[in-house]
Specification:
Layout lengths: L4 H10 L1 H7 L9 H10 L2 H14 L6 E9 L5 H6 L6 E9 L5 E7 L11
Antiparallel strand pairs: 1-2, 2-3
Protein name: Transposase DDE domain-containing protein
C-alpha cells in the first residue's frame, strides 16, 4: 500500500466493515501529530526495547532480509520546516526483517547514508 499514515487513518475512520472485522473503534488510531510527538518524548532506548521484545515473541527464523527506504521532506513547505526546526531534508531507514515471521528485528534511521551492510556499526 502506497499511503501515508494520515491517509490510512482517514480511510480506517470511513471503513466501518473493516474496522468491525479488526474490532477497532473509530478513534482507535492516534492522530498523526500525537504519534509524531510520542517518538520525541520517549527515549530511543525504550523504542529499541519494544522492538527487541516484539522480535523475541515472533520466534525468528534463520534467514533475514535488509530493506532500505528513503523518506523525503521535499513536499513540506519551507515555512513548515523552519517553524518546526527541521532542517534535514531526507532520512534513510534500514530495517532488518525476519523472512519467516516478517518481524522487524532491527531498525536504523539516519540522515547520513552508510552502505546497508555497515548500518549500526
Amino acid at each position: 500500500m502506497d499511503a501515508t499514515y494520515r491517509e490510512i487513518v482517514d480511510w480506517a475512520s470511513e471503513m466501518d466493515r473493516v474496522r468491525g472485522l479488526l474490532q477497532l473503534s473509530r478513534t482507535a488510531f492516534p492522530a498523526p501529530s500525537t504519534l509524531y510527538r510520542s517518538f520525541e518524548r520517549v527515549p530511543m532506548s525504550v523504542w529499541r526495547g519494544f522492538l527487541r521484545e516484539s522480535a523475541t515473541i515472533c520466534d525468528p527464523g534463520s534467514h533475514g532480509a535488509i530493506d532500505a527506504t528513503f523518506f523525503d521532506r521535499e513536499t513540506a513547505s519551507k515555512h513548515y520546516q523552519h517553524r518546526s526546526d527541521r532542517h534535514i531534508r531526507t532520512l534513510k531507514t534500514t530495517a532488518l526483517v525476519d523472512t519467516d515471521s516478517c518481524a522487524i528485528l532491527d531498525l536504523h534511521c539516519s540522515a547520513h547514508w552508510p552502505h546497508d551492510t555497515q548500518t549500526g556499526r
